[in-house]
Q: What sequence folds into this?
């Protein structure tokens, strides 16, 4: 029989708690943005009245992948492995889209510091608790 002093469980629980709080903040910000677009759509008839006409459809891929990354953080509350993998894969898809499709623009790397850590923490918690 192996002895476990509980430090692994304590560390995993602390990581899980940090990831959940961080994901809750991301989900809250995302909901505020989506509610704002919905209210504007109901009042003005368009989600963003300042949007340009005839922009390429590839411009929609970046917000979609960022939304999927936040959605993955939400899924990770129930299924840590799947949610963390979805979050990280969606963010990597965002990097790929921005690098190969929209390459002349600078990429806002600050988003990586905000969106990816919960997915990484959820994957680490899932791995440690297996």
A:
């Amino acid at each position: 029989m192996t002895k476990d002093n509980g430090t692994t469980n304590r560390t995993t629980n602390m990581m899980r708690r940090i990831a959940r709080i961080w994901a809750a903040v991301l989900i809250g910000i995302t909901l505020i943005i989506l509610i704002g677009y919905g209210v504007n759509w109901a009042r003005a008839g368009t989600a963003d009245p300042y949007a340009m006409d005839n922009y390429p459809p590839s411009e929609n891929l970046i917000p979609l992948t960022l939304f999927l990354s936040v959605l993955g953080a939400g899924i990770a509350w129930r299924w840590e492995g799947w949610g963390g993998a979805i979050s990280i894969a969606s963010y990597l898809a965002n990097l790929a889209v921005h690098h190969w499709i929209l390459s002349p623009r600078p990429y806002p790397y600050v988003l990586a510091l905000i969106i990816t850590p919960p997915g990484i923490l959820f994957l680490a918690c899932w791995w440690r608790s297996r």
